[in-house]
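Lecture notes, continued. The same structure-token format from the folding unit now serves as the input rather than the output. Read the line below as a description of shape only.
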């Protein structure tokens, strides 16, 4: 470890206070709670084969997905930590059908929304998975929190981040002043800043998508992917990389550039990403790094959600590739 760069996440959060007029001890404490939850989840992920955390619970979440043991564990850890410490008035989670209100913290200013374990189908085969979260400030402090406080467009987020549980555990987050990456040192129990003000390349050479859905896509989406593959003789040199863990695929896109796309298809006409607690957080991070995120017609962060578990197409990555996708999608190209 480079000893001239020993900046812990706690120090970083404290130093960021001066950048945010809304920042309070409550906000900083919530970020601390999230970091602690990620430490605990990381420990259990790394011991999953030893602590009998592989496999299914036999339950389904509100989206109809089969719940895995680690899904449930991660959800309970995040939920219990943030609710008991008094820094949120309510939460929304992929694993909870409805909002969960803090029993004794009705006047708290913040709302946490999260996907406790993204890519959980990869748990049993030891492939990178992650957690996604974002924080909103409630609309009004003088009335009880309600569903409208949660159904804000993504542009209203005050913070967003994700954790990756892979060869190392990373925490990537933004509070609207750039994107910073922290790496967890389990021997010290600390997250250290390892990349400051991360920027996505304006263009890249990798595309990431589930091509098994190719014939379910709209024709213009197929034409865009054909262009990337050079199928029309354009000598395009893009390479396909797909992990099937959205947060991991998007993290790679953030580092190397290119595009990640999960458009709507015949089986999922409104897309598969959950707008409130997945797409908005990832879109804020990528935009803060200089990238773009769209559903094809509209900037993701400008979409007004109508329900907690609403789904959306998600096309995200380098600005050049995402802009080109939008031209294909809107049929502005000479096809």
């Amino acid at each position: 470890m480079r000893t001239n760069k020993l900046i812990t996440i706690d120090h970083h959060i404290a130093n960021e206070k001066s950048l945010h007029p809304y920042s309070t001890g409550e906000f900083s404490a919530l970020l601390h709670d999230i970091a602690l939850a990620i430490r605990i989840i990381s420990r259990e992920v790394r011991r999953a084969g030893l602590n009998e955390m592989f496999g299914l619970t036999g339950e389904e979440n509100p989206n109809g997905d089969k719940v895995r043991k680690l899904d449930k564990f991660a959800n309970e850890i995040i939920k219990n930590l943030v609710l008991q410490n008094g820094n949120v008035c309510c939460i929304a989670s992929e694993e909870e059908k409805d909002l969960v209100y803090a029993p004794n913290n009705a006047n708290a200013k913040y709302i946490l929304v999260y996907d406790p374990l993204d890519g959980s189908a990869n748990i049993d085969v030891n492939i990178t998975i992650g957690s996604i979260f974002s924080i909103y400030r409630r609309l009004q402090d003088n009335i009880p929190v309600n569903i409208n406080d949660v159904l804000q467009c993504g542009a209203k987020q005050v913070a967003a981040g994700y954790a990756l549980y892979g060869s190392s555990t990373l925490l990537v987050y933004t509070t609207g002043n750039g994107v910073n990456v922290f790496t967890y040192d389990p021997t010290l129990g600390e997250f250290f800043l390892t990349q400051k003000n991360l920027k996505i390349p304006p263009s890249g050479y990798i595309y990431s998508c589930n091509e098994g859905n190719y014939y379910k896509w709209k024709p213009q989406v197929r034409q865009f992917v054909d262009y990337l593959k050079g199928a029309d003789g354009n000598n395009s040199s893009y390479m396909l990389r797909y992990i099937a863990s959205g947060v991991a695929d998007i993290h790679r896109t953030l580092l190397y550039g290119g595009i990640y796309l999960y458009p709507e298809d015949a089986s999922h006409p409104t897309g598969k990403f959950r707008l409130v607690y997945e797409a908005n957080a990832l879109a804020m991070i990528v935009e803060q790094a200089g990238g773009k995120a769209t559903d094809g017609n509209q900037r993701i962060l400008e979409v007004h959600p109508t329900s907690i578990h609403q789904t959306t197409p998600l096309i995200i990555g380098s600005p050049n590739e995402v802009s080109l996708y939008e031209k294909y999608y809107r049929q502005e190209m000479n096809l």
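Point for the exam: The chain has two domains: 3-195, 206-329.
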